[in-house]
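Retry 2 of 3 after timeout on previous attempt. Resubmitting structure tokens to design endpoint.
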């Protein structure tokens, strides 16, 4: 079987069974395809066609491997061009407990975020007319980063942390639209988020005053 007949390279078990319904023993066929490398098993019930003419999306797979979840933190910040480092692990946020998946195509990390902080600032990124994935916008990815990795940052530390430690360019930071997550910034009592909110307001006042 030529796997270019699959419309898209990310496949779940039901899609595979439907595609192989002409075989008497489709499960045995899946086993053979896995053994021959024509199919890669990401986790139970989730597969990738490595020979597809369309490249598979690690972001789509991250959404499917463990959910509810969306891509965020270091990976999203790098995708948005806010941090310079290449990020190999696909980092996501979930309302469930934290987890790491080691797969043949890379590692996928999931960190827990309380449900009340989960949805605002998350956006849908289309790959084509039928495929896409959920990922934090740049503002939400920064919120998640500070909330989960740097919870105790004081106001006096926040500027140096953003521009020196994380190496975010000030011009890029100035282009962010924090109104998208104002409800989160205003309601979250974690020290680093309070510091970020105060810093944003301070910069806004300076810009208004010239």
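Retry 2 succeeded. Sequence:
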């Amino acid at each position: 079987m030529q796997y270019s007949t699959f419309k898209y390279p990310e496949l779940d078990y039901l899609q595979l069974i439907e595609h192989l319904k002409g075989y008497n023993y489709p499960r045995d066929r899946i086993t053979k395809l896995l053994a021959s490398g024509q199919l890669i098993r990401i986790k139970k019930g989730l597969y990738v066609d490595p020979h597809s003419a369309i490249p598979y999306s690690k972001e789509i797979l991250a959404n499917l491997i463990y959910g509810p979840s969306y891509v965020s933190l270091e990976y999203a910040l790098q995708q948005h061009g806010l941090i310079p480092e290449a990020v190999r692990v696909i980092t996501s946020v979930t309302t469930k407990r934290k987890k790491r998946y080691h797969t043949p195509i890379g590692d996928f990390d999931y960190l827990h975020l309380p449900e009340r902080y989960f949805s605002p600032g998350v956006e849908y990124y289309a790959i084509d007319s039928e495929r896409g994935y959920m990922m934090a916008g740049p503002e939400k990815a920064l919120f998640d980063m500070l909330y989960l990795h740097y919870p105790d940052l004081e106001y006096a530390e926040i500027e140096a942390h953003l521009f020196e430690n994380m190496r975010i360019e000030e011009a890029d930071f100035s282009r962010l639209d924090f109104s998208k997550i104002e409800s989160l910034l205003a309601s979250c009592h974690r020290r680093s988020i309070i510091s970020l909110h105060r810093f944003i307001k301070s910069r806004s006042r300076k810009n208004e005053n010239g």
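Attempt log closed. The chain has a mean pLDDT of 93.
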